[in-house]
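Consider the tokenized backbone below.
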């Protein structure tokens, strides 16, 4: 069976940034005029620092890339970030919990102190992106860039919007730009590699994933990507070994579990493949629905 590239590992990450508090809001923050609405007595402005523009997760975390992105975190971890003392982290943590009103109240409350900080606007933009409001997200990402043209998280996120609009070439340009401005940034490299994989540039993609794995050896999305690289090279047992190195809870994630089940089937382990497939959370397959059905039918057949 030819491994279906169209849906294997394309998990594109939004760069959050922001160093890692719970409020209830009556405001919706949907009025884009809020960007310049508040003219209160100025407070001390919180300056931006790249060194502190990340979340406080160490090497013991399973998802090391979440120091730059919360795109795949559990509600438990999002709650941890939302409960931090830093307002910027409160904003994005609440948004990943889908507590948008709480997030926007924090944004309103801290506007004067953070209005000149690009990380603040980046987080607000990501809240709108999570609400599938691309136009508003784009406005806030560009606001972040107007404050710092070299602010790579916003550049990466503009690339993600291009991807969602089907403009892969423009997205790749943004990811490359973010990498050029900040060579240590992992998230745009991950996104760049996924585009290469999407277009069959396996050697380029897998080389980037391998480099990422050196600095983030336990990140599940990097491990998943490398497992797919093994599958494309017909090294099914190596792919299986990578999936087995993960915590079993991650196998319930469709984009990981489906790939794992496929690798097992391709190695001749039909029974184990079916077990993994049965454990996948299929309540929200989204774009993976067709891929899931294809792998399910393939496993059900007796031939390899």
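A designed sequence for it:
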């Amino acid at each position: 069976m030819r491994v279906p590239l169209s849906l294997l590992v394309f998990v594109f990450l939004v760069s959050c940034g922001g160093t890692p508090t719970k409020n209830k809001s009556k405001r919706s923050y949907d009025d884009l005029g809020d960007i310049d609405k508040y003219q209160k007595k100025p407070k001390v402005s919180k300056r931006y620092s790249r060194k502190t523009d990340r979340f406080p997760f160490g090497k013991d975390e399973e998802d090391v890339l979440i120091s730059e992105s919360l795109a795949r975190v559990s509600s438990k971890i999002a709650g941890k970030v939302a409960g931090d003392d830093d307002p910027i982290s409160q904003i994005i943590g609440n948004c990943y919990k889908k507590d948008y009103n709480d997030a926007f109240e924090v944004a309103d409350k801290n506007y004067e102190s953070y209005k000149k900080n690009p990380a603040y606007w980046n987080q607000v933009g990501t809240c709108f992106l999570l609400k599938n409001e691309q136009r508003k997200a784009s406005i806030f990402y560009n606001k972040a860039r107007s404050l710092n043209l070299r602010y790579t998280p916003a550049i990466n996120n503009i690339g993600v919007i291009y991807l969602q609009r089907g403009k892969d070439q423009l997205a790749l340009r943004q990811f490359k730009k973010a990498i050029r401005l900040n060579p240590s940034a992992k998230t745009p490299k991950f996104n760049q590699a996924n585009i290469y994989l999407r277009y069959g540039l396996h050697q380029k993609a897998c080389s980037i994933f391998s480099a990422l794995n050196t600095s983030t050896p336990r990140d599940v999305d990097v491990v998943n990507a490398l497992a797919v690289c093994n599958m494309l090279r017909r090294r099914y047992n190596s792919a299986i070994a990578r999936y087995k190195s993960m915590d079993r809870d991650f196998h319930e994630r469709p984009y990981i579990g489906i790939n794992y089940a496929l690798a097992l089937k391709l190695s001749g382990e039909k029974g184990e493949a079916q077990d993994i497939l049965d454990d996948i959370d299929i309540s929200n397959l989204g774009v993976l629905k067709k891929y899931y059905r294809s792998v399910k039918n393939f496993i059900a057949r007796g031939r390899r």
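The chain has a mean pLDDT of 80.
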